[in-house]
Amino acid sequence: MSACLRSEPLRSRDSRVPGAQRLAPASEALMIFSSPLVPTRLAILPLFAILLLAGCASEPTVPKQDVAMSAQQAKQPIAMQPRKPADMESRIVRFLPRQVPDKQGWANDVVTALSTQGVTVSDHNVCTVLAVAEQEATYQADPVVPGLGKIAWKEINARAAKLLIPEFVVRTALGIKPPTGKSYAERIDKLRTEREMSEIFEDMISMVPMGKTLFGNLNPVHTGGPMQVSIAFAEANARGYPYPVKDSIRHEVFSRRGGIWFGTRHLFGYPADYPDTLYRFADFNAGWYASRNAAFQAAVSRLSGKPLALDGDLVRYDSDLPGKTEQAVYTLASRVNMSKQAIHQSLRKGDTAEFAQTDLYHRVFTLADKQAGKRQPRAVLPGIQLKSPKITRNLTTAWFAKRVDEREQRCVRQMATIR
Length: 419
What we know:
By secondary structure, this protein is mostly helical. Helix content is 55%, strand content 1%. It contains 21 helices and two strands. It has helices at residues 26-33, 40-57, 64-75, 85-95, 103-116, 123-137, 148-162, 167-175, 184-189, 194-207, 209-215, 231-236, 249-253, 256-268, 278-286, 290-304, 324-330, 333-336, 340-347, 359-372, 397-415, and strands spanning 223-224, 229-230. Helix 4 (85-95) crosses helix 5, helix 6 (123-137) crosses helix 21 (397-415) and helix 15 crosses helix 21 (397-415).
C-alpha cells in the first residue's frame, strides 16, 4: 500500500477563478510552519508531513469515472471490449481469407470507418462490418456481376419503350464509334462491374443527346461498392466523411474506402435498442428501423385482427392516402385514445428514433402485451421479398439478415483464436 495518504488539496489563497484549485507549493508551507509564532521543535514534524504530501501530490490518480468505465468494460464479453487501432488492424489482416488482396488496406479502411464515426473498435463491431462485406461482395471493392451487360440493355430498352423510341434507334445511336475509343454499345456489351456501368451511364447522360432524353440526370445504378450501399443514402449521409472527395460521393461509394465507410454508417449511424445485431442486418437491407416497425405492425395486426405485410413501412411514401398499416391503426383509435390526425403524425415519424417515444407506440404495445399476456417483441425480421435484376433466386430480407448474422458469429469465433 502506498505511504501517501489521500487528502484534500490545499487551496490557493489568491485563487480568483470560481471553482479553481491548486496545490499550495512546498515553499509556501515551509513559510507557514517556520513562522515565529510556531516553536521550531513543533514545526519539524509538520514539515516532514508537508514534504511527504508534496511528493504524493505528483502521483497520478485515476479519475473515478475512468475506474468505473474500466470496470464496466471488464464485464463486457471479450468480443465487445475496445482494442487499440493498430492491434485491431493486425487482427483483421490475420483474419481475412488468403485470397483477399491488400489485406492491410482493408484493415485500415475498416478501423478508420469505425473510429471516425465514434463506434467502438472491437472484434464484434469489426465482424459486423466484415460480415456484410463478405455477404455482399466476398471482400471485393468492385465486385463482378454476371450478365451485367444484359441488365444494362434491359434498363436502356425499358426507358426507351416508355418514350416510344424503337430499340434499333437506340442501338444505332449508341453504336456510333467516337474518334477515340469504343462505342457505348461495345462498352455496354463488355460490362463487368457496377462501377463500370455507372461510369458509362454518366458518360451517356452528359455526352449523348439520346442519353439525356432517356435518363435525364438519373443514373440507373443505385447501389455499389464492397457493401452495396445505396448511393442516395451515401449522398445524404456524407457529413464527417474523412477522405478527400475526388469527383463525387457516387464515385467514392465504388471505392473500397468509401464503400466501407458508408456501409459502416448504414449499420451503426442510428440509435436502435435491438436485442441482437441480427436486426441491424435486416435494417441494412430494408432501411433504418424496419425491424422495429415490423414489430409494431405485428402488434397492430394482432390487436386489429387485420393481416398486414411486415415490411416496416408505416405510411405510404408514394401517396397521401393511408396505407393498410395506417388504416389498421385507425381501427384502434378509440382504444389508444388518439385522433386520426394524431395517429398519422406519429406514423410519419416511423423512419426516425422518435417514433419509439410517441404515445401511439407505447399505447399500442401496452395493449398488445396485455392481450397476449406477455411482452411482445419490439423487433421482428421484416418479411420483404428481395427484388433486383441481379437476384435470380427467391430471397427475403430475413434470409439476408440470417446469412450475415451467421458470418458475423463465425468471424467473432475466429477472432477469439487470434492472440
